[in-house]
Amino acid sequence: MSRPVQVAVLGGGSWGTTVATLAAANTPTLLWARDENTVAEINEQHTNSRYLEDRPLPESLRATSDLREAAEWADVLVVGVPTQAMRSALAEAAPHVRPWVPVLSLAKGLEMGTRMRPTEVIAEAFPGHPVGLLAGPNLAREVLDGKAAAAVVALPDAAVACALQPLFSGRRFRVYRNEDLLGSELGGVLKNIIAIAAGMSEGLGTGDNTRAMVLTRGLSEITRLGVAMGAQERTFAGLTGLGDLMATCMSPLSRNRRVGEELARDKSLEQIIEEMNQVAEGVKTAATVMELAREYDVIMPIAAEVDAVVNDGRHPREAYRGLLRAAAEHEIDEVA
Ligand SMILES: NC(=O)C1=CN([C@@H]2O[C@H](COP(=O)(O)OP(=O)(O)OC[C@H]3O[C@@H](n4cnc5c(N)ncnc54)[C@H](O)[C@@H]3O)[C@@H](O)[C@H]2O)C=CC1
Ligand SMILES: O=C(CO)COP(=O)(O)O
């Protein structure tokens, strides 16, 4: 009799732990975290209080601080470390992962310097492996609390995606699939920049109309860049596009939105990051997105203002004034 599929998740932060919890309900799952105290707490008390307060984790979920053990154990590998830390963790894990193992990314940033998407970084570390991602509107705390949500396994090979879907699905967690990996990944990356802008509007005390404007025009920017880079336009109307954009721009649980909100309330970026003690991928991705916008000759006024706030010290109030001064072109022609 064949044994069940073993899932290894790298990254013991809020989302890595939550995805490991989803998988542990279906199949044996091992979570790698670099912090030994976190590992001991997950194994002995079944909580990860640093990232997820006192939410209970399943007793069947085992954690390890031994990266090699997790790598050797994996029939399916899930990468939940933040984008900028991914390359070094993967270099250490790769020699111990079996050749055919599918690798799924959870990350929503772009690597600084190389401008690579997380799945491109993974494909470089794991040549020949099926590589994809699990993404969607998935605020970790809500998923762990069992509030209904949906995600997408995006992978060019539909047969592999079909095999992976049930590993993460639950009664209140629906997992769809999509072969447009590029579009699905860019949706998650780019919404973080727009969420910072949405947070800024929140912090400035603007209204729901403003929020809707930022979200809708933000979706136009995301779609324009994504399509120019070769993604399918309709992917951006799906869970990894509009869906994730809505959740992140609207929820007080979003770290990216919180960054924008606190910047608008005159807190420094350094202080916000220090106090948050969690990753807000949009901060380090904004400049790279603007490099891509220039390379692909795509107009991204909201992303440009966010980049100016995050990297050049412009005040959010000024950024909003800048946006309102920009010429309003034809709404739809601009997107094509
Ligand atoms: N939290 C959420 O609701 C969601 C997060 N994501 C994405 O998942 C990725 C991970 O995010 P979170 O788990 O939320 O982050 P987090 O800030 O909660 O935790 C990050 C984890 O990565 C670890 N880490 C940091 N640097 C590392 C290194 N050099 N080597 C090994 N481990 C390292 C930290 O120790 C921590 O365990 C991000 O790209 C994020 O955008 C995606 C969907 C939902
Ligand atoms: O990606 C997320 C929800 O899908 C989480 O967003 P934040 O990283 O802004 O918290």
Characteristics:
single chain; about 325 residues; alpha/beta; Rossmann fold; N-(1-d-carboxylethyl)-l-norvaline Dehydrogenase, domain 2; 2 domains; 8-stranded mixed sheet; 16 helices; 8 strands; about 55% helix; globular; binds 1,4-dihydronicotinamide adenine dinucleotide; binds 1,3-dihydroxyacetonephosphate
Describe the overall structure:
- It is found in: Cytoplasm.
- Keywords: Cytoplasm, Lipid biosynthesis, Lipid metabolism, NAD, NADP, Nucleotide-binding, Oxidoreductase, Phospholipid biosynthesis, Phospholipid metabolism.
- Its EC number is 1.1.1.94.
- InterPro entries: 6-PGluconate_DH-like_C_sf (IPR008927), 6PGD_dom2 (IPR013328), G3P_DH_NAD-dep (IPR006168), G3P_DH_NAD-dep_C (IPR006109), G3P_DH_NAD-dep_N (IPR011128), NAD(P)-bd_dom_sf (IPR036291).
- This protein has helices spanning about 15-25, 35-45, 50, 65-75, 85-95, 120-125, 140-145, 160-170, 180-205, 210-230, 240-250, 255-265, 270-275, 280-295, 300-310, 315-325; strands at about 5-10, 30, 60-65, 75-80, 105, 130-135, 150-155, 175-180.
- The protein has about 325 residues and is α/β, with parallel strands linked by helices.
- The protein has two domains: about 5-180, Rossmann fold (3-Layer(aba) Sandwich), CATH 3.40.50; about 180-325, N-(1-d-carboxylethyl)-l-norvaline Dehydrogenase, domain 2, CATH 1.10.1040.10.
- The chain has an eight-stranded mixed beta sheet with strand order 3-2-1-4-5-6-7-8, with helices on both faces.
- Helix 14 (about 280-295) packs across helix 15.
- The longest helix is centred in the middle third of the chain and has 23 residues, at about 180-205.
- The mean pLDDT is about 95.
- 1,3-dihydroxyacetonephosphate binds near residues 108, 137, 138 and 244.
